[in-house]
Here is the input.
Amino acid sequence: MWGEPGIRHTRSSAAVHQQHRREPDAVEIPDHGYLNLPEWPGIADIRALTSPDVLVSVTGGGMVMVRGTTLEEDTSAPNPGQPMGGGYNSSLSAGVITLATPLNPGASVNMRFVFGVEGSGKFRVFVVVEALP
Here is the structure.
């Protein structure tokens, strides 16, 4: 792995009801391992990774907690999980939003997405955030 670039994003709830789960789907990530495709010249090979919570300083002083995301994996036999990280159509979850601890209307959560770089080149990441009422 060549590096681990990350994206931080604040997600706010404009919903009328509490949201019990936030599930960002990293639906478009160039990974050369998807369907055993060969490397594409000039296109990076990146993978979604599980990331821990981090405390970051913000402009103007102060600190903010940025919540890590968890790569969802099926490790039940015979599936091996995703030992090299998640590629195309992977799901990540923000474990701080659950049935017991929903995101209230008007509240927000700072989230962190981390990617493992397996091959250099250009890339884009398209994320769709789904919320369950």
The longest strand covers residues 108-119.
